[in-house]
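Tip: read the tokens left to right.
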């Protein structure tokens, strides 16, 4: 009887030990890795729609002077507009609705700053002391007409930069030779947009019906209208060019210049043909003239 009790006790002990071992092993295998930290994500404003924020929900901004993709905010500017660095971003560290291909980092005087679609990203510190605004606040948008909340879906951005023609000359906003920034329209990636002086209201006078000359001055083919807050979306619409939609502003069809070669900040077209025939698109341009009777547009020269 005593021997049977000992055997039973040993068997029960072995069973309990085995159960504990496999239970622990199963528990170890089921441990999940911590979720990655999201360093950049989207927030939504009733007035501005979606915009970029950091992991704490603090608003991020673009600076129009960074039209070349380089950082232009230095010295005292940084007290008001501290740079944002999101670390080495991966598809797991950005929020839903963002594309990792749109982000990169650049070295700036020994530090690193994150860019989105080629635009360096900043915070806003209203008192100039480097203390950034609280999460959910967007008080820096529109500042000085050149600082804008960073949005994922702009169809128009504003660049503030020097005009330099195909002829190598620098030009002012009045298209005289000289130095000085002009604030003009670009696409979301900083590529310059132009108007054509011979166009009329929502009539493209340049592009041939078969698009044979589109490579010279490609139309800005989009129906999306998301613009910086100092512009009125109601001034933008589209016109149809041989089945394609071309964005217009105040009735002026918008174009790229082929010889800019898709280089952000390049605005060589201002001297193409003759100076001012292809001005950069700007906020205060007067409405395009009414089309002449019987004018169907298309096929114009430089």
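Filled-in amino acids:
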């Amino acid at each position: 009887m005593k021997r049977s009790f000992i055997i039973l006790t040993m068997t029960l002990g072995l069973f309990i030990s085995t159960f504990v071992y496999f239970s622990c092993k199963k528990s170890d295998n089921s441990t999940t890795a911590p979720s990655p930290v999201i360093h950049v994500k989207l927030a939504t404003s009733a007035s501005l729609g979606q915009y970029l924020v950091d992991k704490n929900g603090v608003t991020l901004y673009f600076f129009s002077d960074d039209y070349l993709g380089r950082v232009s905010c230095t010295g005292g500017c940084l007290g008001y507009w501290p740079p944002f660095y999101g670390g080495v971003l991966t598809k797991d560290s950005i929020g839903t609705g963002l594309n990792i291909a749109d982000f990169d980092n650049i070295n700036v005087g020994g530090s690193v700053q994150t860019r989105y679609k080629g635009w360096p990203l900043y915070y806003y510190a209203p008192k100039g002391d480097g203390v950034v605004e609280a999460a959910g606040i967007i008080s820096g948008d529109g500042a000085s007409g050149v600082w804008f909340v960073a949005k994922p879906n702009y169809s128009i951005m504003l660049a503030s930069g020097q005009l330099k023609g195909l002829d190598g000359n620098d030009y002012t906003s009045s298209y005289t030779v000289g130095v000085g920034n002009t604030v003009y329209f670009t696409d979301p990636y900083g590529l310059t947009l132009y108007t054509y002086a011979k166009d009329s209201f929502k009539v493209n006078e340049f592009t041939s019906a078969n698009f044979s000359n589109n490579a010279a001055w490609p139309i800005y083919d989009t129906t999306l209208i998301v613009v910086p807050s100092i512009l009125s979306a109601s001034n933008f619409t589209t016109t149809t060019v041989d089945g394609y939609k071309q964005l217009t502003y105040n009735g002026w069809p918008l174009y790229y210049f082929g010889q800019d070669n898709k280089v952000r900040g390049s605005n060589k077209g201002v001297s193409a043909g003759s100076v001012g025939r292809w001005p950069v698109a700007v906020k205060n341009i007067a409405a395009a003239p009414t089309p002449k009777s019987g004018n169907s547009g298309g096929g114009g020269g430089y």
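DSSP finds two helices and 13 strands in the chain. Residues 154-302 form one domain.
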